[in-house]
Prior knowledge:
InterPro entries: P-loop_NTPase, PhoH, PhoH2-like, PIN-like_dom_sf, PIN_dom. Keywords: ATP-binding, Nucleotide-binding. In the N-terminal section; belongs to the PINc/VapC protein family. Belongs to the PhoH family. This protein is α/β, with parallel strands linked by helices. The chain has 3 domains: about 15-160, 5'-nuclease (Rossmann fold, 3-Layer(aba) Sandwich); about 180-245, no CATH class; about 260-470, P-loop containing nucleotide triphosphate hydrolases (Rossmann fold). The protein has 15 helices and 18 strands. The strands form 3 sheets. A 6-stranded mixed beta sheet has the order 3-4-2-1-5-6. A 6-stranded mixed beta sheet has the order 7-10-11-12-9-8, with helices on one face. Helix 11 (about 340-350) crosses helix 12 and helix 13 (about 400-405) packs across helix 14 (about 435-445). The longest helix is centred in the first third of the chain and has 18 residues, at about 55-75. Mean pLDDT is about 80; it is low at about 1-10 and about 320.
Amino acid sequence: MATRKSKSKARQSxxxxxxxxxxxxxxxxxxxxEEHDVYLPMVTLEELDSHKKGMxxxxxxxxxxxxxxxxxVSGSEASITEGVALSEPSKGLAGGNLFLQTQAVSGExxxxxxxxxxxxxxxxxxxHLARLNPxxxxxxxxxxxxxxxxxxxxxxxxxxYFNDQVLEDADLLYTGMREIDDTFWExxxxxxxxWQEAGHAYYRLTGPDCSNLLLNEMVFQExxxxxxxxxxxxxxxxxxxxxxxxxxxxxxxxxxxITARNREQNFALNLLMDPEIDFVTLLGQAGTxxxxxxxxxxLMMTLEHKTYTEIIxxxxxxxxxxxxxxxxxxxxxxxxxxxxxxDDNLDVLNQSDGESGEWGRAATRDLIRSRIKVKSLNxxxxxxxxxxxxxxxxxxxxxxxxxxxxxxxxxxxxxVVCLGNISQIDTPYLTEGSSxxxxxxxxxxxxxxxxxxxxxxxxxxxLADHAAEVL
Length: 471
């Protein structure tokens, strides 16, 4: 009876043929197919070999994939033709076998598809395997949309690689805030205790909704002259403590001459100005004020409060590719073309100081620029930042691995702020669901020293707002 069960299970398991871009995107993809088998065509190995040179992320991933393959193949006594078990090298993550192409394949492709092209050779392998295994589902896995379209046109099964996706739908991403109504107070406010401490009002609530709250999540209730705005400071079982937040929309609380123009900006400034919060992520469309608010808070905490020694700003230089070497000058000068956003925002922050006059503003500008360092991502490995205010702009273009490399640079007393718009990703094969920014928002939510806000309202100009709406 047991043998019949195992046979039916084997019949259900699929055979996944991997395209090279899957391995170059995520080398651990070999172990991500659970009980199913993985097949690598010879062309995939050839392409891995041709991409392994260089210091780019793709080259590093190609080398790592090759190392994994070497471990799997050399650590097993089984023949490659029969399949090498993945359970041991994957430490129980995968239960299938790995097959490598060991013989030439004569797949009959349509005449229009040139045989010399690597993609078409992989399609020929998939076609051959589908013919050899009529009772088993053979699926091509590729990050290349055109490759998947060609496969489906030939009547073959094809899928994108989803295992690296944090979320299926970006709309489900944590926003960092939650709206409450009167029923929330009815359900959770029966034994409410409230007190004042250090200029903030605290509320201890007990009830069924408290366990769903996350640390440093913002809660708000509309209505009345003064809406209720608070941050979650403690969560323990069915008990939570809410604390009122500082009102940065009021001119007396202006940060470097900047006041919050809406509720989300107010929330963002509360997170940015809190020295207990070491990691802040701000998501939002163009013009929502991410960079301006972050720079204003950074300057205030560096020059006025002296919490940090300097501001370090970096961003991904995707349009140029990997290297910034062909531009003349030092690292700072080479990064200047990508730092237009920094200069634009500094101009705004300088103009807010109306009393000092032209000379005073020029002196302030020089002082500010001396405290802001612009760094390239390419030289971040091995560094440690102490008491710095680190801003990572355009963070949606980073992979989860690059994001980890950057955030782990933070030494004692450093605050890291990641800014980005996940609907504007320029990195190939990176999507809203698999971006490093989405990854950190999801992984850091609920940690006591991290906060996140999704900014929704554009505050750039009426023209920019209307363009974002209608174009």
